[in-house]
Amino acid sequence: MINLNIRTPFIKNLIFLPVIISIFCSKQNLTQLGPDDEFERAMEFYNQKKYDQAIKLFERIIFYYATTEFVDDAQFYLADSYLKKKDYAQAITEFEYLIKNFPNTPFLERSYLLRAQAYFLKSPGYEKDQTETKEAISLLDEFLTRFPNSIYSDTAKALILKARDRLAKKEVENGKLYLKMKEYDSAILYFKYVIDNYPETSSAEESKFLLAQTYEKARRMQEAYDLYKDLVDSPKWKHIAEEKIKRLKIENP
């Protein structure tokens, strides 16, 4: 008589064997995906804005397929994924790696631009240290010099204007502080600095108005009058400048 208790474990193993084989084969198939398939999967995650998943796959491609045609593509989209998930420090690192190690990549131009953008976005508000804003401007100037005919030139110039306006606002706030403290000579220096060094920014006209106010408080009426007169041509400051001129004429006939 056959002892069924002895054969039962063996029979159970036979039952689960196809499942084990299936799992093993699935894992083999996953690891045997080619770089083109891996990249396609990574881009699917990227386009779905699933950046954490995309990052893992782009890193895998860079590590396992470093000699394939997909490596610089993966490096670019890895950097851009970090940029889009607002990890600006890591984005800068990845763009710099691409620029340094893949000088012939078709992504070089965009990498220069996006690296500068990452510096700008990483920089805090104008009331804090602006070292990174200055670095962004420097890198954008480098971009325009290196790629003078780039289709992204207007984008770079617009970003430079934003960055310069941020720097100008910091100087304006310093001037306002001195104006509030009635230290008019110091306030005048700051407002003049903005007018002379950031003439294209929105802060320049504000500085002109604040400088006129400072002159007025310092009893330098003719200089205040001349600045208010200049501001009459500004759509933003026209009305208030005209009111100031009328008052000055009444008080100083």
From TrEMBL:
The record's section on InterPro entries has: BamD, BamD-like, TPR-like_helical_dom_sf, TPR_rpt
Question: TPR repeat positions in this chain?
Answer: 72-105, 168-201
The secretion signal range is none
Please provide the record's keywords in A-Z order. Answer: Cell outer membrane, Membrane, Signal, TPR repeat
All residue ranges annotated as the Outer membrane lipoprotein BamD-like domain in the record = 38-219
| Membrane-spanning intervals of the chain | none
Please report a single Pfam family linked to this protein.
YfiO
List the SUPFAM superfamilies hit by this protein, alphabetically: TPR-like
Entries under SMART domains matching the protein: TPR
UniProt protein name: Outer membrane protein assembly factor BamD
Q: Which organism is it from?
A: candidate division WOR-3 bacterium
Species lineage, top-down?
A: Bacteria, Bacteria division WOR-3
